Amino acid sequence: MQNAETGTAPVKLSNATLSALPQDVLRPRYDRSRLTPGIVHIGLGNFHRAHQAWYLHRLMQDGLAMDWAIIGAGVRPYDAAMRDRLLAQDCLTTLIELDPAGRSVEVTGAMIDYLPIEEGNGALIRQMADPAIRIVALTVTEGGYYIDPVTGGFDASHPDIQHDAANPDTPRTAFGAMVAALRLRRDAGHGSFTGQSCDNLQGNGAILRQTVVSLAHMSDPDLAEWIDAHTSFPNSMVDCIVPATGPNEIALARELGIDDAAPVTHENYRQWVIEDRFCAGRPDWDRAGATFSEDVHAYEAMKIRVLNGGHQVIANAGEVLSLATIADCMAHPGLAAFFDKVERTEIVPHVAAVPGMTPEAYVDLITRRFANPMIHDTTRRVAFDGSSRHTGFVLPILRDALAKGTPVTGLALVEALWARMCAGTRQDGSVIEPNDPFWADLNATALAARDEPQTWLRQDHLYGDLLHEPRFAEAFCGWLAMLWQDGVEATLAAYTRD
């Protein structure tokens, strides 16, 4: 495929070809051969490359943080394909910013290597044990921290955790690898590294501490105490809408003159708010636009409840209505009205303002961002892993609303829409492919709930005692019955006109 504007073939991305890229493509101004590692990042998905790695790249563009380069890592077999793609292009990434006002293209180079994916994670453990590594960061999804969804505590019964506790030198999980590396650092007299979660979790640093320390305690209580005393786990809030990459994104990069096997598209918005608690130093990310704050919780709550919770408000309905993207959902009048009412009447009352932003203004901002037609963020991606996202993003708001006596009927409809989606068919009769790690159980329960809605709420591992909260349970059962009888659009209209 040739560049549509110049008629030339796209340039295969690599260090050697940076100077041959189209003139309007921003590229590293720094000498990448001078970079030395300071960060291991586990989970090299699109979000990390468009967000945390971009902030570091911007510092390097100004000649800063040259000793903080990223070494990528993964712990699952499927990570090997991404490793191959990135190593083949010298770990460079093309970022394509998509906005109704125009698009821009930048090649970033803050990442310099990607560790082998291997059973036992030996290479990862050795790299993290190197005292040059001062931060170990993760984007492993909000469902990847082995949390009991009802209690919020550590799930010590999970088979992966049981394996790592019994085999601490050859772990399966990222957290087991961190524990093994910290043991080596302690025994060698080295200091600890900072553990930095970059996932969408309320108190993500505290949750990472809980997982690492609890896992260490299962095999070595003394090590667990050392980790707890010497390792910092700063909380942070991360924000940027970054769609998954598929053939269309790869084709777009080629049209723009770059042959990149793993390009990333993203919106024209980023935010990163971080606690300044780093036991072994950190880059000056604030000089690239990040915010260091001791009140990360307020930023987290606003973003997770309004944006991440808002995604769940519309995604399940969008799937049942065959709406392909989040922008399509926002272009649907009934679904947009539903989103607006739930956000303003049932979510905003449980969100505090942050410096420079009220909850109401943040809803306006999120509405504009979700409606961006240039961002092809699929409804399927946003609806993925509802068993983690509803328990993490929606149910905490619901519990606050029940405790405070504020409305819950819209949140009950959000949950009913999830149950309807998990039945596995859209209104047009097409099949919704499995889209949750626990899809088989969810699907069977959703089908049974068609005739007896309370069946869905009997999933104690998700809902706990919410079945016995009449304001919620009665509304949920009524909505689910209406969804099956009258369809999604009529049910949304019934909520928004009340």
Structure report:
There is one protein chain. The protein has 498 residues and is an alpha/beta fold. It folds into 2 domains: 11-294, 3-Layer(aba) Sandwich (Rossmann fold); 297-497, Orthogonal Bundle (N-(1-d-carboxylethyl)-l-norvaline Dehydrogenase, domain 2), CATH 1.10.1040. The protein is 47% helix and 11% strand. The protein has helices at residues 46-50, 52-61, 79-87, 122-129, 159-166, 174-188, 204-219, 221-230, 247-255, 296-320, 326-331, 333-347, 359-370, 379-383, 386-404, 409-422, 439-449, 454-457, 460-463, 470-486, 488-497, and strands at residues 11-12, 37-42, 69-73, 93-99, 102-108, 111-114, 135-138, 194-197, 236-239, 258-259, 264-266, 271-274, 291-292. It has a 5-stranded parallel sheet with strand order 6-3-2-7-8, with helices on both faces. Strands 5-4-11 form a 3-stranded mixed sheet. Strands 9-12-13 form a 3-stranded mixed sheet, with helices on one face. β4 and β5 form a beta hairpin.
Major sheet characteristics: 5 strands, parallel
Strand arrangement, major sheet: 6-3-2-7-8
Note the beta-strand portion. 5-15%
- The CATH architecture designation of the largest domain is 3-Layer(aba) Sandwich
Query: What is the CATH superfamily label of the largest domain?
Result: NAD(P)-binding Rossmann-like Domain
Can you tell me the CATH class of the largest domain? Alpha Beta
Report the count of strand segments. Answer: 13
**How many domains?**
2
Shape: globular
Which structural class best describes the helix and strand composition? alpha/beta
State the helix count.
Answer: 21
- Gyration radius over CA: 23 Å
Mean pLDDT metric:
96
Distance between the termini: 53 Å
Model regions low in confidence, pLDDT < 50 over at least 5 residues: none
> Can you give the helix content as a percent range?
40-55%
